Fold non-specific serine/threonine protein kinase.
Amino acid sequence: MRRVVGVPAIAAVVVTAVLYVASAALVVVGELTTQLQNGLTATHAASATSAFEPVLYAPNGVFAFGFLRVGDASLDLAVVHLPSSFPLWRATPARLGDWSRPATLTFDTTLVLTDEDSGVLWQTLNTVGDVVVLLNSSNLILRRYDDDSNVPPWQSFEHPSDTLVVDQNFTGSSPPLISNNRRFAFRLGKTFMALHMEFYGGKTTPMYWHHTALEAHPENATEPPVYGRLDVRGFFGLYLAGGEQKVDTLSFDTFLQNLTGEVFRRMTMDDDGNLRAYYWTDGAKDWISDYRAIAGDDRCELPTSCGAYGLCVPGGAQCQCLDNATSVTPPTCHAGEETTDLCSGDGTQQVEFDVVRRTRVSVAYKDELSPETNKTEAECEAACAGNCSCWGAVYNGASGYCYLIDFPVETMVYEADDRKVGYFKVRKLPSSKRSRMSPGVAATTAVLSLVLVVLVAAGAWFGYRLWERRWRGRAGTMEQELVPGRYKDLKSMGSSNDSFK
Ligand SMILES: *[C@@H]1O[C@H](CO)[C@@H](O)[C@H](O)[C@H]1NC(C)=O
Ligand SMILES: *[C@@H]1O[C@H](CO)[C@@H](O)[C@H](O)[C@H]1NC(C)=O
Ligand SMILES: *[C@@H]1O[C@H](CO)[C@@H](O)[C@H](O)[C@H]1NC(C)=O
Ligand SMILES: *[C@@H]1O[C@H](CO)[C@@H](O)[C@H](O)[C@H]1NC(C)=O
Ligand SMILES: *[C@@H]1O[C@H](CO)[C@@H](O)[C@H](O)[C@H]1NC(C)=O
Ligand SMILES: *[C@@H]1O[C@H](CO)[C@@H](O)[C@H](O)[C@H]1NC(C)=O
Ligand SMILES: *[C@@H]1O[C@H](CO)[C@@H](O)[C@H](O)[C@H]1NC(C)=O
């Protein structure tokens, strides 16, 4: 029986969880909580030692929902596959909680995660539910007592994070799968599935891999869009929306082995930019991958294998930097992640940049970039140089194809062909002494500047008062002296500002 897996650990956390949870709002089956009812409040103990604090279990005991520690010290809500401790779903709020502080999960028609200091971190919006349950499929759902429609008011299956599981429908209107490091996304188009890099907070999303459904007809405008679903038999199927008509099958290595019923499968947008399927067998020690979208054995085929401004040399998959400067080494050929393009002013001027040129370079995903054709090398370079949304240009002298890169430069691939040349812009870092100031120096400078401003203002005020007094004095004199023949004095005095000094 599956529940046997990891029982001591589960039993221990159940005791802990029950201590923290208002017991009236729970339905406990056997030793596991399998329902959260309205009025529930569960509390995360500050700096809990276990990385996962379950609040709710699936009836099969394989999955649990609760507080998850992310990284060193952040807090999120997650549905975890207990045998592997892998989070299949995460709430991923814009702002994560802090593991070292208390946090509260409440259920009162909606699920809400609150942090003592920052307030509401995450909630299920516009939903009304009577109970929260975690299904055997790992789908976390809010359910109404009086609803026969079978469509829950809210389900985690409609809000994937980086992973899909068996029977989870993935559609064009689903949020994309976003890798844990938030740099890659898996999306569905009308008749195709695609992988994208995410730049500028998701505003620029160049595609680096796609697969079109074989039997779907994009030219047929009336044909419904496709949706995707991971199948326990070992494939990812693409189906026409609104039905079960399959238009494509991406079969996994284990497709013919008939592992049905013995394995749990997931498909994950991994942090290296590849989309992979994995399976877990009872008693296993690790996930086994049986599918990857980018199938080559060479990691140079992944879009950021050597980091920004890196050059991947196939074969040994060595990394170099596009700029051969000895002071930098891959994968840190470039400082920091680009958060904006090179445009400035009204969007046509460019910020300052340096240029790196390199021969024998190409792009791994050039099939996804639409080249400008019949160009000379100079024309190709000029097209990029003058355009502030362009970061680089890769030119093939043999074909005349010019690939403009309108997103920050990532890893290029080495190709032993002198006719393949690249032109790359590197943002000039603000290199003035000002930016090198230590915080202490900067603070001192600020204080001194302020003192100076106050002194100047005070000086001006005293000067003004002095001038005013003198002017009044002289004016008094003047009245007395306003006699013909004395105009010269008056004129010289009126035009002179000497009294300020
Ligand atoms: C969930 O799994 C448990 C244990 O495997 C089983 O007893 C139960 O019937 C399952 N529930 C559903 C709805 O399939
Ligand atoms: C997935 O889509 C199919 C076909 O549209 C539907 O029958 C099924 O209920 C959906 N599954 C979920 C979990 O919504
Ligand atoms: C367009 O789609 C409809 C409905 O799916 C189908 O009957 C028809 O044959 C399709 N036409 C073409 C040209 O694919
Ligand atoms: C696959 O295995 C299941 C039992 O695990 C069995 O019932 C089924 O007939 C098998 N199917 C094939 C095609 O071998
Ligand atoms: C960079 O260094 C490599 C190996 O040291 C060399 O083969 C290559 O020609 C150099 N490229 C440039 C542009 O200097
Ligand atoms: C390519 O450009 C040259 C000159 O710029 C022109 O004469 C030629 O017709 C062009 N070829 C194609 C296929 O467009
Ligand atoms: C600059 O490049 C972008 C993207 O490649 C393109 O959409 C735009 O039209 C170009 N602007 C000019 C002025 O050529």
Observations:
- Residues 1-24, 432-445, 450-456, 469-501 have pLDDT under 50 and may be disordered.
- The two ends are 96 Å apart (CA to CA).
- The first strand starts at residue 26 and ends at 29.
- DSSP finds five helices and 36 strands in the chain.
